[in-house]
TrEMBL record:
GO terms for molecular function: 4 iron, 4 sulfur cluster binding; amidophosphoribosyltransferase activity; magnesium ion binding. Keywords: 4Fe-4S, Glutamine amidotransferase, Glycosyltransferase, Iron, Iron-sulfur, Magnesium, Metal-binding, Purine biosynthesis, Transferase. It holds the Pfam family Pribosyltran. Its cofactor is Mg(2+); [4Fe-4S] cluster. CDD domains: GPATase_N, PRTases_typeI. In the C-terminal section; belongs to the purine/pyrimidine phosphoribosyltransferase family. It comes from Teichococcus rhizosphaerae. Binds 1 Mg(2+) ion per subunit. Binds 1 [4Fe-4S] cluster per subunit. Its EC number is 2.4.2.14. It comes from the Bacteria. This is Amidophosphoribosyltransferase.
Length: 493
């Protein structure tokens, strides 16, 4: 979900992108506790806010939402006791900056003709502002500034009778990336956009829990609740889970699959399996490809923790150069930590990373990280490693250069702020202060994922951040109000 670019005077967002995690369970003992655990395992997908909506056995909904980490929001026994019921959906929200108002915290909830519906969305819609303008003109009153709210209004105005048909009607009008979990008093619903850009998996709890179905952004959330992985929800598939079991609907026909390749590189947790491929092994293979493509004589391979670790292991195994934890990460740096004052800034306080001097001093070091976005991290780390006595510092990156912004749900700054959008590799090496810099090639990345090379006609993944190949139209960005869906336009709105 993403705050919508401001189209109205009451809109106060700044248009930054967000990433998220979703979880849902149907008919299990203590659904809220399972959901809190699932959200905890998905904390890396969103640290700003979390929410859970449950459906009680009497048919009423209960909700709790808060700003902060899952453990802080749902660690309170009183809060959990209030979240009654055997069915639940939950959401983690991520935003590096931007509006943090509680009204934007999901799951969104609304009462419709057919009853209550809670919706949790991971992804980013690319025609949300266009839709919102049309909906507002029609009289819809938006309560939040997230793009996800357009789902709620499209469902509300749909002329179809039942909730699943209304949802399908809504999904046919939105463009962009979405993995959704929704809960109403008849079913838990999961849905993935036609290209399957964002992940969504289906699992099942054991017999002791009545074999309840679970939906989650990643398999690591199934593992934590002891659910067995069944399968990925397919691109364009809607799964409806109720007391009769699971029903699959595919209203979009078969199109190209474009799973986000960056989930493998950085975003997903390494112990998750995405689209049948374990993330950890993929990251190691990317590291090995990188070593083959960009060999350099060195004494030690050092990962930039934590995201660079598996790729650095793969690099070390392939190159035969020893692996060392030459940089130590402090895991307790919260967002709220005070910035060093000017008086102590001269100490060169590094809150997040510090050099492990004995592993670096006097050595030729290969640093491995997953990506360079603005270049700030690389610059700081290279400098730190040099100060710790490294003789040479070579930077190796386990993704191709990030030259384009993501509009499908990964937080990236606008293009002008991406180092690789403005500079070639040599210039970037100079800017970050490295003796050499190399990125994995696009084909090398595809090789690590089991393909001979990137097939430009049908790559199978969304790699727009590296190629600019945006497979889903960027309607809001490109300003195409004529692309307002037929239903809204036909009503003269
Ligand atoms: P930068 O300092 O702007 O070049 O950012 C690069 C660092 O940010 C790398 O160490 C990545 O692990 C990390 N990173 C890459 N993409 C993201 C993202 N979407 N959100 C947060 N961190 C990221």
């Amino acid at each position: 979900m993403q705050p919508l670019p401001s189209t109205n005077p009451w809109d106060d967002d700044d248009g930054f992108h967000e990433e998220c995690g979703v979880f849902g369970v149907w008919n299990a003992t203590d659904a809220a506790a399972l959901t809190a655990l699932g959200l905890h395992a998905l904390q890396h997908r969103g640290q700003e806010a979390s929410g859970i909506v449950t459906l009680s056995e009497k048919g009423g909904f209960h909700a709790h939402r808060g700003l902060g980490l899952v453990g802080d929001i749902f660690g309170d026994a009183k809060v959990m006791a209030g979240l009654k019921g055997r069915c639940a959906v939950g959401h983690n929200r991520y935003a590096t900056t931007g509006e943090t108002a509680l009204r934007n915290v999901q799951p969104l909830f609304a009462d419709f003709e057919f009853g209550g519906l809670a919706v949790a969305h991971n992804g980013n819609l690319t025609n949300a502002s266009t839709l919102k303008r049309a909906l507002v003109r029609r009289g819809c009153l938006f309560q939040s500034t997230t793009d996800s709210e357009v789902f709620v209004h499209l469902i509300a105005i749909s002329l179809y009778a039942n909730v699943v048909d209304r949802l399908i009607d809504a999904l046919k009008q939105v463009q962009g990336a979405y993995s959704l979990v929704a809960l109403h008093d008849g079913a838990l619903i999961g849905a993935r956009d036609p290209m399957g850009v964002r992940p969504l998996v289906l699992g099942r709890l054991g017999a002791a829990e009545g074999g309840a179905y679970v939906l989650a952004s990643e398999t690591c959330a199934l593992d934590i609740v002891g659910a067995e992985f069944i399968r990925d929800v397919e691109p364009g598939e809607i799964v409806v889970i109720d007391n009769n079991g699971l029903r699959s609907i595919k209203p979009f026909g078969r199109g190209q699959s474009r799973f986000c390749i960056f989930e493998y590189i950085y975003f997903a947790r390494p112990d998750s399996v995405m689209e049948g491929t374990p993330v950890y092994g993929t990251r190691k293979r990317i590291g090995a490809e990188l070593a083959r493509e960009s060999h350099v004589e060195a004494d030690v391979i050092v990962p930039v923790p934590d995201s660079g670790v598996p790729a650095a292991m793969g690099y070390a195994a392939e190159s035969g150069i020893p692996f060392e934890l030459g940089i130590i990460r402090n895991h307790y740096v919260g967002r709220t930590f005070i910035e060093p004052t000017d008086q102590i800034r001269h100490l060169g306080v590094k809150l997040k990373h510090s050099a492990n001097r004995p592993t670096i001093e006097g050595k030729r070091v290969i640093l491995v990280d997953d990506s360079i976005v603005r270049g700030t991290t690389s610059k700081k780390i290279v400098e730190m490693v040099r100060q710790a006595g490294a003789r040479e510092v070579h930077m190796r990156i386990s993704s191709p250069p990030t030259t384009h912004s993501c509009f499908y749900g990964i937080d990236t700054p606008e293009r002008e702020k991406l180092l690789a959008a403005k500079h070639d590799v040599e210039e970037m090496a100079r800017i970050i202060g490295a003796d050499s810099l190399a990125f994995i090639s696009l084909d090398g990345l595809y090789r690590a994922l089991g393909h001979a090379k990137r097939d430009a006609g049908n790559p199978g993944y969304c790699d727009a951040c590296f190629t600019g190949d945006y497979a889903i139209p960027l309607t809001d960005l490109e300003g195409h109000p004529e692309r307002v869906p037929v239903l809204l336009a036909a009503n003269g709105q």
